[in-house]
Structures are given as structure tokens and as C-alpha cells.
Amino acid sequence: GTDDSLVPTSASQVNALATAPIEVDAGSSYSCALTSDDRIICWGNNAAGTLGNGMFDGGFGPSEVNLPCPN
Q1: DSSP summary character for residue 1
Q2: Most C-beta atoms within 10 A of its C-beta, which of 15, 38, 51, 61?
């Protein structure tokens, strides 16, 4: 969801996940999924480089992590 409270909200579909996620990890302002085809897709706030794409921008769109991670 997009609520700023600590109360759980409904999940939103992430269209970049072409295959089913097998594991999901969520931080305070970002989330990452390991997909069944061994890709890592992250989305959310990237101000601290948490999306693993080598950038420190605002983020929010789904971004595939290229390993080894450039951060």
C-alpha cells in the first residue's frame, strides 16, 4: 500500500515481476523480491541506495538488481 502509517495496508501489484516471487523482503521504505527465475527486483525509496541499482535518486519504480551490487 501507500499509507504512511504503521498499520498494514493492502499490497499493490508490481508489474515488473514477470515471474512469481519466491521470497520478499521489506525495509522501512523499500521492498525487494527474489523471483523464480533468479532475478532480484527492488522498488521504493532509493535515497540511501537501497534499491541496489548504483544510484541514490528518489527511486520508487521497480528496478532489477545487477549482481554483484554496485553499492
Answers
A1: -
A2: 51
Q: In terms of Cα–Cα distance, which of 62, 67, 1, 69 is closest to 38?
A: 67
Q: Are 59 and 51 in contact (CB under 8 A)?
A: yes
The count of residues in the chain is 71
User: 42: which DSSP letter?
Assistant: E
d(CA 45, CA 59): 5
Report how far residue 18's alpha carbon sits from residue 45's, in angstroms, rounded to the nearest whole number.
Answer: 22
- In contact, 54 and 63? CB cutoff 8 Å: no
Q: Are 43 and 33 in contact (CB under 8 A)?
A: no
In tens, the pLDDT along 12-68 reads 666 666 777 889 888 888 888 898 888 888 888 888 777 777 777 777 778 888 777
